[in-house]
């Protein structure tokens, strides 16, 4: 993964984190880096969920798409706000 891959991961993670914060009811006070981490983590959680639901023919992990990434980020946000604070 080159520098552009890392930059795109940060940008996409931030957008997914922003969308998750938008869809989550109530005020969510997270900074830029926590929002980005939320989006990147949500993509990983969404990938695990989609792998469990739709088995890939080669048995390998595939990253989630936008919708599953947002769902994964919403799950992480719920866990963070209800159990970590």
Describe this entry's structure for a reader:
The chain is mainly alpha-helical. The chain has a domain at 33-54 and 61-85. Helix content is 73%, strand content 0%. The protein is globular, with a radius of gyration of 13 Å. The protein starts with a helix and ends with a helix.
Name the shape in a single word.
Answer: globular
Q: Name the helicity range.
A: over 70%
- Mean pLDDT across the residues is 88
In what range is the share of β-strand residues? under 5%
The helix-strand sequence is HHH
Topology record:
Elements: H1 3-23, H2 32-53, H3 66-84
Helix pairs in contact: 1-2, 1-3, 2-3
Entry summary:
The protein has 3 helices and no strands. By secondary structure, the protein is an all-alpha fold.
Which key features would you list for this structure?
85 residues, mainly alpha, single chain
């Amino acid at each position: 993964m080159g520098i552009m891959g890392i930059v795109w991961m940060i940008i996409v993670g931030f957008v997914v984190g922003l969308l998750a914060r938008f869809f989550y009811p109530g005020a969510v006070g997270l900074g830029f880096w926590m929002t980005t981490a939320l989006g990147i983590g949500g993509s990983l959680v969404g990938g695990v969920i989609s792998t469990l639901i739709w088995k890939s023919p080669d048995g390998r992990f595939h990253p989630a798409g936008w919708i599953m990434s947002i769902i994964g980020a919403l799950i992480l946000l719920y866990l963070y706000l209800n159990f970590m604070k």
